[in-house]
Amino acid sequence: MTVPSVTLCLWYNGDAEEAANFYAATFPDSHVRASHRAPTDYPGGSADTVLTVDFIVLGIPCIGLNGGPLFPHSEAFSFQVATDSQEETDRYWNAIVSNGGAESACGWCKDKWGLSWQITPRVLTNGMAHGDPAVRARVFTAMMTMHKIDHAAIEAAIRGEA
């Protein structure tokens, strides 16, 4: 196996393998490559405990480190997932939230392991980058009222119908 030049290391409290399997089942271009177990007992753990999980999520190489509760995830790091349709937005959002996650504002949600996700429709990104400041303001105002992003409402804001 070739080791990538850059790999994200994500800290988990003993459940990196469960998280990696969830991501692999939820997102395209995602899979678990290997789980690495402790060869012997060690302080705070025993032989055969999963120490790290090598996985790919959305094409991004990751290592899930079962490091314990010392460093929980925060909103300071998130995966931003661009979506092309309401169906795709709903699929990812609902998978994360219905699997023990939590909704947040403006397209953000958190999975059950505390990792933050931005499920961001391209229509929102394009609206926020629009050349007309009035369009950007309408899109921003509409987004600020949402948890999961509503494509139709954003499109209406772009057209000035909101």
SSE series: EHEEEEHEEEHHH
- List the total number of helices: 5
Biggest sheet character: 4 strands, mixed
CATH fold field value of the largest domain: 2,3-Dihydroxybiphenyl 1,2-Dioxygenase, domain 1
Q: From the helix content, strand content and strand pairing, which structural class follows?
A: alpha/beta
Give the overall form. elongated
Strand content: 25-35%
Return residue spans where pLDDT drops below 50 for at least 5 consecutive residues.
none
The pLDDT mean sits at 95
**CA-atom Rg in angstroms:** 19 Å
CATH C-level label of the largest domain:
Alpha Beta
Query: How many beta strands in the DSSP annotation?
Result: 8
Characterization of the model:
It is a single chain. This protein is of the alpha/beta class. It has two domains: 1-72, 2,3-Dihydroxybiphenyl 1,2-Dioxygenase, domain 1 (Roll), CATH 3.10.180; 73-162, 2,3-Dihydroxybiphenyl 1,2-Dioxygenase, domain 1 (Roll), CATH 3.10.180. The chain has five helices and eight strands. It has helices at residues 16-26, 86-98, 122-128, 133-143, 151-159; strands at residues 8-12, 31-37, 50-57, 60-66, 78-83, 102-103, 108-110, 116-121. The strands form two sheets. It has a four-stranded mixed beta sheet with strand order 1-4-3-2, covered by helices on one side. A four-stranded mixed beta sheet has the order 5-8-7-6. Helix 4 (133-143) packs antiparallel against helix 5 (151-159). The termini are far apart. The mean pLDDT is 95.
Concise summary:
The chain is an alpha/beta fold and 162 residues long. It has helices at residues 16-26, 86-98, 122-128, 133-143, 151-159, and strands spanning 8-12, 31-37, 50-57, 60-66, 78-83, 102-103, 108-110, 116-121. A four-stranded mixed sheet has the order 1-4-3-2, covered by helices on one side. The protein has a four-stranded mixed sheet with strand order 5-8-7-6.
